[in-house]
Structure formats: C-alpha cells, structure tokens
C-alpha cells in the first residue's frame, strides 16, 4: 500500500480460515492502528480448497503446522508442506528463512547459507571439469566417483534415491548394489549438513592433484609391464622381490 502499486488484495487460504481472515483484514482496512495503516479498494479472501486440519501427513499440512515443525526443529515434517517440485537445497533455505523470521536458532551445522551454496556449487563445478578431462588414468577411484554423484544430486535437484543409484551404477562397476545403496542413504542423510558436504567435496578435489595422478600412472604402468613381460611376478609378493 505504501508504494502505491496495488489497489486490490486477494488472499488465498485454507477453506477453514476464509471467514476468519476475511473479517480480520476488512476490519482494519482504512483504519489507523498500532500495526500500521492500509486502505485498499477491496480485500477478497478465497478458499484454496477443502482441508482437514486434523488429518495426518501432507493432506492436513498448513502454515501453522509448518511453523510448529520449525519450532520443534522437525525438518522432515516441515518438508511435507513444501511442493514436491522444490529441491532439497531450496527447501532448506525456506526452512532457515522461516526459522529466522520466528527468531529460532537452528542447530549448528544444519543451516545452508548463500556462502555455503556458492562454495558447494563451485566445488561441484571444478570436480565436474576435472572428471570430464580426457585422461589415461581417472582422477577419482570408482568409489569416489560414486560418492561425488550422490553428493551432487543430494544438494541440487532432490532426485529420488532410485535415480541416484541408477546413475552411480552406470558410472561405477566396482561397488556392489548393497554398497551403493548404503552410500546413497548415508549421503541423503548427510546432505542436510552443509559442513559435511563441503568437507567431502574438498577431499575429493584434493584427490585429483598432479602428484596423485602421477603416482597412479606410475603404478598402472608398472602393472602393465609386469603383466605383459613378467607374468610370473604377478603371483609373488613385493616383499619377496629384489630391489632390481
């Protein structure tokens, strides 16, 4: 109203709150009060549809219940009131914004800040580029590639566990289905903690240093030479071999 941009107000609420909001908003229209002053040509309150406030789960979710979930620190319950298309990252940002508006301190390590997301996205981009470079020796082991995929999907698009597992399966042949599923569950839980995400991504980035790649290349070259020219040596332990 103060910016003189709008002359009419339309508010959409649950069917059980239409009468309450309609009476309250129109009561103070063109009335000076402690909360301020506003004067609109019309204020209409429209029902968003039938909702059972006593129902359990998403069908009975409301803004009041979502605020109560934030008050209790119950993120999973809060998430039930968020549209299905919203990513995990944006859901956390919304949760943090509601908590901030209610002057509630979020548990340490559970809050995604803008700086967190910038660093996380930057690390993901850098590792992506390194992985796409054409190298004879991969910069990451199969289990590290698998972990990176889980981390990347967990913090970006909120893709289902089944889709993540399928992507990991196509990239990594060294892990069993049980190992991949166990890692997926762990990553989905830990994705709520930006501190953990950054720590793991930094570790994966460090795994791609030139020294590491050179060491792996040397080992791979030795194995190829032994396999081709000295096949009998493959059955012996390194401790049994001479320095030459």
TrEMBL record:
It comes from marine metagenome. This is Uncharacterized protein.
């Amino acid at each position: 109203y103060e910016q003189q941009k709008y002359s009419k107000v339309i508010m959409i609420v649950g069917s059980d709150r239409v009468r309450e909001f309609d009476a309250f908003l129109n009561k103070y229209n063109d009335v000076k009060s402690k909360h301020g002053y506003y004067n609109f040509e019309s204020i209409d309150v429209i029902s968003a549809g039938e909702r059972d406030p006593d129902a359990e789960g998403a069908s009975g979710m409301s803004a009041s219940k979502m605020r109560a979930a934030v008050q209790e620190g119950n993120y999973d319950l809060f998430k039930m009131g968020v549209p299905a298309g919203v990513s995990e990252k944006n859901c956390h940002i919304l949760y943090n914004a509601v908590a901030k508006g209610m002057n509630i301190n979020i548990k340490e390590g559970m809050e995604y800040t803008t700086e967190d997301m910038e660093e996380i996205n930057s690390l993901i981009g850098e590792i992506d580029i390194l992985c796409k470079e054409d190298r004879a020796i991969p910069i990451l082991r199969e289990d590290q590639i698998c972990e990176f995929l889980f981390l990347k999907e967990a913090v970006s698009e909120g893709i289902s566990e089944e889709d993540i597992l399928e992507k990991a399966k196509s990239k990594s042949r060294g892990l069993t289905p049980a190992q991949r599923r166990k890692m997926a569950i762990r990553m989905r839980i830990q994705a709520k903690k930006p501190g953990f995400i950054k720590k793991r991504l930094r570790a994966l980035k460090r795994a791609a240093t030139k020294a590491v790649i050179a060491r792996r290349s040397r080992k791979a070259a030795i194995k190829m030479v032994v396999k081709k020219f000295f096949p009998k040596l493959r059955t012996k332990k390194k401790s049994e071999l001479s320095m030459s």
